Amino acid sequence: MSEVRVRFAPSPTGYLHIGGARTALFNWLFAHKMGGKLILRIEDTDIARLKEDSVSQILTSLKWLGLTWDEGPEVGGNYGPYYQSERLDLYKKYCDQLLEEGKAYYCFCTPEELEAEREKQRLAKQPFRYARTCREIPLEEARARIAAGEKPSVRVKIPQEGSITVHDLIHGDVTFSMDQYDDFVIMKSNGIPTYNFAVVVDDHLMQMSHVLRAEEHLSNTPKQLLIYEALGWEPPKFGHMSMILAPDRSKLSKRHGATSVEEFRSQGYVAPAIVNYLTLLGWGPGDEREVFTLEETVKLFELEQMSKKAAIYDTKKLTWMNGQYLSELPLDAILPEVKPFFVEAGLVDEAWLDANEEYFAKLIDTVRVRVKTLQEVVDASTYFFKDVEAYDEKGVAKHFKPEAIELLEKCMAALEADEVFDLESTEAIYNKISEDNGLALGKVIHPTRLALTGRTVSPGMFDVMVLLGKERTLARMAKAIEYIKTL
RNA sequence: GGCGCUAUGGUCAAGCGGCUAAGACGUCGCCCUCUCAAGGCGAAAUCACGAGUUCGAUUCUCGUUAGCGCUACCA
C-alpha cells in the first residue's frame, strides 16, 4: 500500500477558526496514526476575499496548537509550490489539455446573462442550471473571439445523465444524480481556477491518498470526481467530517464571540486544552476518559468512529478542560503562556518578571489549581501585587475602621513573634467584617491567620503567606493599617 | 425550488433488536470551609414525530418535520 498523504488546505480569508483547527487536527491525527504525511496548502485563489496577514496568522495558530506539517509553507517539500497562487501555470496546463481533448469549452456568457437566466429559472421554480449555451462553439471560433479581445471562462462538459457515487469513509456510499449538475466553470475569465478544479489538480499532483475535509464539501465531491475522470486520474479516498456549529446551530461567525484559535488564546485558553476539547467534539477514545493527550489519541484514533453529526461547541466544557490542563500541565509549559497576561494587565513588566522568576513561578503554581483560564490566573494574582486600597471598593475598611486596625495589629503581633495565633480572639471581629462580604481586609488578613494557625483550608491560600514571606506580609499589613487610618 | 447529510438530556456522547438508556460539561442540592474557588458526594434532565418489519424497537425500513450543507467566474 502506498504512503498515506493527507492535507489541510485553508483559505487565507481570516484567522484560523475552530472548525478549521478541527479539520487540521483530524488530518494530523490520521497522518500520524498511519505513519503518513500532512501537507499544508494555501488556497489563495479568491483574490477578493484574501486578507493581509492571514497566512501568517493561520501558521502561527497551527504551530501554537502543535499541529505541525511535513510539507508546505516554511518547510518546503517535493510537491510545491504550496500556494495555489503560485501554481497558476499548472492549472492552465491541465485546463488546456481538457480544452484540447474536447472535454471542456470556452464560455462567453457574461455574469449578467447568467444571473438573468438563473432568475428566470428561480421564478419558474426550476432547478438552477447552466443552459450549456456555449457548449457547441467550435474551439477555433472560440480562439478567434479570444484573439479579438473577449475573455471567456472555461467550463467542463459533464455527462447529462446517470449518477455518481462517492465512497465516503465516514458517511458510506452517497449517490448523486447527474441531472442536478451543470457544466460548471473550472477556469474563471481572469485565468484563475475555481476551487473544484484547483483542488483536483493539486490533490493529484501532490499525491494525496486521502482527502479529509469538512462536510460542506460533500456535495461538491461528484464534480471533483468528474474532473478526475476527465483528466484520467485516480481519485483519492474521501472522508467528510461533520461541521462545528455556533450555539444557536448556525454557522460560525464573528457575532458568536470567540471562534478563532487566536481569540481563545487571548482569552487565556491553553493549546492542549483546545486540542483535547476539539478532539472530543466528534470523536472519543471509546472509554470514559475525557482528558487525554495527542499522543494517546494518535494510538486510538479511528476515522470510521467519527461522529456524523454536526456538533455545537460548548465554551463551558472547554473552560473546564482548560482548568484541568492548567492544574496538571508542567509549570514550565504554563509560565511562558501566562507572562504576557500579567504584562497586559499592567501588574508587572518584563524587567520584574526577569528579576523575580522564582517568586513568579511559585505564585503561578499556587494559584493555578483554583482557576480555569490564564486570565483568571492574573485575576487571582492581583492580590499579591496590589495593596488593600485596591480592594476596598465597598468602603468596608472605613466602616469598620477600629475593628480593622485591631485585627491587623493582632495578626502582625502574632506574626512578628512567630506565635501560634489565637483564633478566638479575633473571630468576632473578623466575622463582623466579612459578613458584609467585605473581602478587602479578608484578603490581607485571612491567609495570614490561616498560616499562623496552621490550619489548611485550601492549599492555595495556605501558601499565600509562605509565598509572600514574613517580611513582605508584615509590610503589607503595616501599609494597610496606614491606609485605614487615613480614612 | 432541487439535491445531499444529520437527528439520544441544555451541550458533547456511549448504545449497533431485549439495558433501571453509560460517561463528561453545565445546572441544582449536600459535604468540606475563618474569604473566593478548587475538591468530594448526590439529584434532576434524553431516544423529534408517524407508520411499518418483528414476539419485541433508541437500534432496521419508509414517510414527515427540523437543522445544516451544496446548488457562484467563494473556498
Overview of this structure, please?
There is one protein chain. With 487 residues, the protein is mainly alpha-helical. The chain is 50% helix and 9% strand. The protein is built from 22 helices and eleven strands. It has a three-stranded antiparallel sheet with strand order 3-4-7. Helix 1 crosses helix 10 (294-300) and helix 9 (271-280) packs across helix 11. The chain is elongated and about 100 Å long. It binds one RNA strand of 75 nucleotides through helix 4, strand 4, strand 6, strand 7 and helix 6.
Task: Give the structural class.
Answer: mainly alpha
> Terminal Cα separation, in Å?
81 Å
Determine the mean pLDDT: 87
Query: What percentage of residues falls in helices of 4 or more residues?
Result: 40-55%
Number of β-strand runs: 11
Helical run tally: 22
Percentage of residues in DSSP E strands: 5-15%
Strand order of the largest sheet: 3-4-7
Taking pLDDT < 50 over at least 5 consecutive residues as the criterion, the unreliable ranges are: 456-462
Instruction: Work out the radius of gyration.
Output: 32 Å
Instruction: Tell me the major beta sheet.
Output: 3 strands, antiparallel
Shape: elongated
Can you describe this structure in just a few lines?
This protein has 487 residues and is mostly helical.
